[in-house]
Give the backbone structure.
Amino acid sequence: MQPQYLISCEKSLIDLDVVHGFLTNCHWAKGISRELVEKSIQHSLCFGVYELSEGKRKQVGFARVISDFATFAYLSDVFVLESHRGNDLSKQLLTEIMKHPELQGLRRWMLVTTNAHGLYEQFGFSAPQHPEKIMEIFVPNLYEREAELLGAIRSEQPLNTPVSQ
């Protein structure tokens, strides 16, 4: 029997343990704290993917959109758990995101991906036409450094990097 899946924007269904567990171990959010994941969910339009089996619901995917709902949206933290890949869930998830009524008529969508260009191209995404116009502030390994700092504070151990005065 094929598994049944539900894609929902209902935040009360989100399993924070699953979302945080994936994100804190993935390459783009390595070491992110549970509190920060929770805050990001509170301030985003979120989409959960759930497997429905024997009357139970299990989260197997997630995505969030940061938007003003008028002109711009940023697609972030898109994942399907490895054990559920190969079922076209990422395509179903992107279909639901792109047809969401609050996300229609936007002038610009953005995202960052290292290896899913083919997926996003199916939904109209492309490399920026004018990358020279795009600027960013990027702090690599921020979450891992924050986790190290918090660990040092909790254990009262000195940090690996000196603090200048």
User: Anything to note?
Assistant: The chain is about 30% helix and 25% strand. Helices lie at 16-23, 34-42, 89-98, 117-121, 142-155. The two ends are 64 Å apart (CA to CA). Residues 19 and 62 are 7 Å apart (CA to CA).
